[in-house]
Structures are given as structure tokens and as C-alpha cells.
Amino acid sequence: MLRRTVLLLGWMLGAVPMVGLMAQGYKAPAGVTILTEDEILTMIVGNTLVGAKEPWVEYYKPDGTKKRGLIRGLWEGSQRYKGRWKIKGSLWCLSYPDDPDSNGCWTLALIGDKVEWYKPNGKEDPPPSTLLSGNPKNL
After folding, report:
1. How do residues 20-44 score in pLDDT, each as one tens digit?
2. Is this prediction's pTM over 0.70?
3. Using CA atoms, how far apart are residues 100 and 83, in angstroms rounded to an integer?
């Protein structure tokens, strides 16, 4: 069976055992391994995600603190935007001042270079995105 690794990007209910903080209200998909805070920092921070079905690209820039930073995004190849990311224990949350409807926290599963996003109820949303090393789009 393919090994699944989960990034917590929200509060998670202990559907799967994990080391460290359990987030309340979120469910993990069955059969996944939860990443620790340090694994999230290593795999996402300083790197870029590209949307699969929606035309977005986001670079997660550190701001000198360990658990928060800046989002530099590009929508439809030309429209730049900004936001902030934050880690709470093993949790990942995003906020966008110009698009508050997109604010929130998710759990993520990382399978190869694909990141699957999960809402609190365990349903995948948005579709999987692709993880790119560094900031190849110069955001």
C-alpha cells in the first residue's frame, strides 16, 4: 500500500494516532501518517504550491519567526496577491486580507509531490496541488 503522509493544516480530531498536539474538530483520512510541526516547516515553508484545477501559485516565505510567515501568490499567471501562513503545533493556517473567504486551516496529505487538502470533515478541498522546491516563480 502506498504510504501516505499527512500535513496538518487545521485542527484535527484524533482519527489517527500522532505524536504531539491533536487538533480538535478535524478528521484525518484513514491510513495516513501525520507530519510533525518540524516536518511541516521542512516540507512547506520556503517552498511553493501550484493549484491543480485553479490557476494559483503560492510561495510560503519565512519571516524570521519559526511558526509564521508570508504568502506571495499569483492568480491566473498575472494577478499578484499576499497573505500570511501560521503553524499552531502541527497545524497550518492561511489568511488573505484581500480575500477573507479563503482564510482557514486544513489538514494535508503529502504523496510524492502532490499535496491533498482536507477540510475539518475530512473531505478533500481544494483539489491536490503540486509541491515545488524553493521559489521557482520568483514570487
Report:
1. 334 556 666 677 666 667 777 888 8
2. yes
3. 10
